[in-house]
């Protein structure tokens, strides 16, 4: 039986001996004697901003913190509401809660995964200060629609691009906006050797506030201008990320090839819904997510056939104990998020996967879903 693991960072680094390049970069950083807010970070920030077709990048300790600091830099705090997708990773909500504001969930479009821009309008109140479009699984949200909505109501737009490094929106990179938060968690499309994150922005004043926030409120030394925090992207991570950034487009192209092969092979398989791509979007394929009924049984049978899958995410955020007491979605008010939590299944989409490995997955899924089985 040939086994297909879900995702292995080690195999990604083996492609074209990226591991050798990472080793050299890490050695350079560890021997430099400079470990935070140094030249590797400066270079990575300039290179990642350029990659995103934007002006400024501010590295942070992780993606959750990038989101939180972006919200704070926009003045979001206690008493404010922030519109968030009901279907997302919990970090999107936690970032809002960390500022003292309240996350207000908005459902995805019917038969989609992403925030429904048509439903944003009815979620706005006098307390609403910002909206967080999440480019979930690597597919960009319709930023033109979000931008028009936000401008109408005077809201800040803080994008959660933790899963969308390299995606494009009507030809423009995800990351070319006003406040775009990225995560460099090792499993993301661009991952560090541990935790990391960044905010990319076109606004020099916002970038300055973010640099204060991440460093105890000080630009340098003990000149504390505000009550900041400590959330920095360290030199070793920045050095590794500079190497991996150079391979990101190749890796995303490989993910796209895997995804296309899945979609073609699964087109004729009854009982599985494959992911759509908007005609204006370039998908980063952080995850290839199908929907099936009886998901847990399908996942168990795939596992028995040697195909490892994951679920992003098994419990809707408002149903987790972390948020259950806030009462969102009481009386079944967030049915789409709950249905997605029950039906989504992520197939392996590692850039190193061979055509044979992809075929192993689709054949196993076809066998599991076959009416006679
Ligand atoms: C990974 C992720 C985050 C948080 O990033 P960390 O670096 O793990 O803190 C936020 N939002 C989404 C959608 C994510 O996938």
From TrEMBL:
Q: What GO molecular function annotations does the UniProt record carry, in alphabetical order? A: transaminase activity
Q: Which principal EC class is assigned to this enzyme?
A: transferase
The record's EC number reads: 2.6.1.-
- The coiled-coil regions, if any, are none
Keyword list, A-Z: Aminotransferase, Pyridoxal phosphate, Transferase
Q: Which Pfam families does the entry link to?
A: DegT_DnrJ_EryC1
Family statement: Belongs to the DegT/DnrJ/EryC1 family.
PANTHER family for this protein: 3-OXO-GLUCOSE-6-PHOSPHATE:GLUTAMATE AMINOTRANSFERASE, TRANSAMINASE
Task: Identify this protein by name.
Answer: DegT/DnrJ/EryC1/StrS family aminotransferase
What species is given as this protein's source? Answer: Streptomyces hazeniae
């Amino acid at each position: 039986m040939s086994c297909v693991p879900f995702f292995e960072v080690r195999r990604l680094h083996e492609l074209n001996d990226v591991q050798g390049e990472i080793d050299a970069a890490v050695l350079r950083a560890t021997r430099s004697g400079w470990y935070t807010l140094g030249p590797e970070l400066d270079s990575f920030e300039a290179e990642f901003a350029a990659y995103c077709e934007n002006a400024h990048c501010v590295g942070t300790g992780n993606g959750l913190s990038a989101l939180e600091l972006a919200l704070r830099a926009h003045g979001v705090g206690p008493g404010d509401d922030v519109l968030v997708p009901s279907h997302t990773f919990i970090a999107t909500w936690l970032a809002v809660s960390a500022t003292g504001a309240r996350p207000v969930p908005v459902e995805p479009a019917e038969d989609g995964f992403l925030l429904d821009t048509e439903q944003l309008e009815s979620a706005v109140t006098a307390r609403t200060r910002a909206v967080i479009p999440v480019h979930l699984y690597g597919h960009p949200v319709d930023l033109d629609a979000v931008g028009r909505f936000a401008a109408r109501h005077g809201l800040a737009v803080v994008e959660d691009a933790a899963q969308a490094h390299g995606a494009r929106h009507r030809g423009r990179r995800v990351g070319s906006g006003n406040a775009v938060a990225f995560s460099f968690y090792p499993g993301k499309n661009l991952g560090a050797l541990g935790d990391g994150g960044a905010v990319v922005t076109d606004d020099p004043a916002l970038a300055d506030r973010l640099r204060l926030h991440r460093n105890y409120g000080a630009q340098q030394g003990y000149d504390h201008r505000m009550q900041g925090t400590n959330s920095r992207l360290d030199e070793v991570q920045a050095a590794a990320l500079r190497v991996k950034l150079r391979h990101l487009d190749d890796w995303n192209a490989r993910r796209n090839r895997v995804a296309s092969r899945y979609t073609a092979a699964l087109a004729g398989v009854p009982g599985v819904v494959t992911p759509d791509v908007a005609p204006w979007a370039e998908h980063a394929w952080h995850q290839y997510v199908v929907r099936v009924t009886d998901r847990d049984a399908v996942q168990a049978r795939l596992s028995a056939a040697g195909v490892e899958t994951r679920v992003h995410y098994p419990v809707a955020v408002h149903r987790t104990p972390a948020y259950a007491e806030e009462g969102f979605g009481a009386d079944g008010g967030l049915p789409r998020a709950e249905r997605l939590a029950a039906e989504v299944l992520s197939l392996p989409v590692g850039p190193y996967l061979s055509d044979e490995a992809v075929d192993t997955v689709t054949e196993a899924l076809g066998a599991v879903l076959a009416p006679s089985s």
